[in-house]
UniProtKB/TrEMBL annotation, chain A:
Keywords noted in UniProt: Lyase
Keyword Lyase belongs to the record: yes
Domain Aconitase A/isopropylmalate dehydratase small subunit swivel residue range list: 55-101
Pfam families according to UniProt: Aconitase_C (PF00694)
Record bears the keyword Flavoprotein: no
Entries under InterPro entries matching the protein: Aconitase/3IPM_dehydase_swvl, AconitaseA/IPMdHydase_ssu_swvl, LeuD
Protein name: 3-isopropylmalate dehydratase
From TrEMBL, chain B:
Keyword Iron-sulfur among UniProt keywords: yes
Residue span, Aconitase/3-isopropylmalate dehydratase large subunit alpha/beta/alpha domain: 81-420
Job of this protein: Catalyzes the isomerization between 2-isopropylmalate and 3-isopropylmalate, via the formation of 2-isopropylmaleate.
Co-factor binding comment: Binds 1 [4Fe-4S] cluster per subunit.
Organism: Geothrix edaphica
Entry protein name: 3-isopropylmalate dehydratase large subunit
Gene3D superfamilies listed in its UniProt record: Aconitase, domain 3
Superkingdom of this protein's organism: Bacteria
Pathway: Amino-acid biosynthesis; L-leucine biosynthesis; L-leucine from 3-methyl-2-oxobutanoate: step 2/4
Gene transcribed to yield this protein: leuC
Cited InterPro entries: Acnase/IPM_dHydase_lsu_aba_1/3, Acoase/IPM_deHydtase_lsu_aba, Aconitase_4Fe-4S_BS, Aconitase_4Fe-4S_dom, HAcnase/IPMdehydase_lsu_prok, Homoacnase/IPMdehydase_lsu, IPM_dehydratase_rel_enz, IPMI_cat
Source taxonomy: Bacteria, Pseudomonadati, Acidobacteriota, Holophagae, Holophagales
Amino acid sequence: MSKVIIKLGNDISTDDIYPGRFMATVLPTETPQFAFFDRTEFNAQLKARAFASGSIIVGGENFGCGSSREQACSTLKGHDVAVVAKSISRIFLQNSINLGLQVVICPGLEAGEGDDLEITADQVLNKTTGKAYEQVKLPAARKGIMDAGGLIPYTRARLLAKQS
Amino acid sequence: MGMTVVEKILARAAGLPSVKVGDVVEPRVDLAMSHENAALVINQFHEVYEGTGLSAKVWDPSRIAIIFDHRVPAESPKTATNQKKIRGFVADHGITKFHDIRGDVGGICHQILPEYGYVRPGYVVVGTDSHTTSHGAMGAFSFGIGATEMASVWSLGIAVNIEVPATIKVVVHGEFPPFVGPKDLILHLIGKLTAQGANYKVLEFHGETIRKMSTSGRIAICNMSVEAGATSGIVPGDAETLRYLREEAGVTDPIPCVTPDLDASYVQTVEIDVTRLVPQIACPHMVDNVKPIGDVVGTRIQQIVIGSCTNGRLDDLAAAADILRGKKVAQGTRMLVFPASSKIFAQALDKGYVHDLMAAGAVVMNSGCGPCLGVHEGALGDHEKALSTTNRNFKGRMGNPTGEVYLCSPVVAAASAITGVITDPRKG
């Protein structure tokens, strides 16, 4: 069971998730401190580890629009949160899969802060309201990368296969 | 069934006779571009090779381009150290398409690639920057990827698991009225489609307006295609593409163009007549919050920005200089100009534009991305407003979450610099 720790609107940009002025920081061990930096209260709670592992950020349409900066994914992965949104922009979704950040596309989802959600293979169940919402399956093409545990091990395996 | 231009490009690059929307392909990459975030790509690249016993060598150093532009010259020891690390990698791997911080061959990545003829029609181009869509202006299929994906490309030379995207056909008719141009067209289109209207799709541009449009204008519209969510924007290679590559980029070898089939299948067609288009403004804080200029005329502006990969080319600087020549930037408004490349800067010097702009009170800066994303140079003060020819106006974009960014064309920016408020150049 996972709690919704923040509910965000549509078009949450990568500048919102990870402001451009911190882009010189690239190491995944260092990026989490800047997550949602300009939402000062939420950022402070993230940094204080006020949320349980597996907590959920709920977004609206077009979550992660904007930059290709991968820090927008590593910063969230570092806090061990998942993202459930009505729709997710292309590069952010791909980066999330590549890095192993859990992202779920759920167009009909209705959930407020504090609600308990359960994510299954094809649904998101809002246990607080008792309603279930269908997930949009991630593209089948991505499955190989997810099964391998991310793009690095996937590419490593491809590279080794090429050599043999 | 015929193919769109991107379907044709992907089929060739994947070694297939044909592809259709939704197919998963692995195209050979013709050019892989990154900037300072190559520091992260290098980390991920070494991680790919860890424990394999293989020596970490990029697949083809001649197909990798690295251009320093986001934080030039370095704004912090951290950036300077990242840049130093990248220089070492470039030397170790023999990467030749490297543009360091220089006043002769430096510039913004999306300008350098066409300017040096690195991108050709029909190429598959990937870049660790979302505005890699710019290179669709050269008839290439080019799209933004993350650093880890780039590390994979550096290792394998292919883009893994790419789904063939659906294409939206955008047909543009008519002649632009005075003081209206490509930037107004793309802002209008984004407003119409919304910020996610083209998500996972390609915008393929056609019509007589596009055919007559300069490469500079085409770069501006393809650059901003990503702001409608598009994977890529593309103008199929034509006579203007060949003219630019021959005359301006100095390319001498054969340049085959890829064009879509007449019976290609499009998911949607958008028709636009620019004959009566008025100057467009994207208002804070979303790039699809587009309004005709009349709705925001008179808004007080503290910072005007002209430049960037979107509108920092010679024609943009010329348009601004023509308006500002003999005039002064309003007191209480500061004007920053950053040409898209060193070459453009030099041309603007030769033609006197830099002098005109400086005499009017503008600060002309070196080529780079600084002010656009608030990394350094040109951050906004609390609650200040900027009017900018760049491509994004997300909250916090110019370095201050209380600041507000309005996006416009170079002529609107220049006319507004004189008055200090958003000004319609047609009435200036």
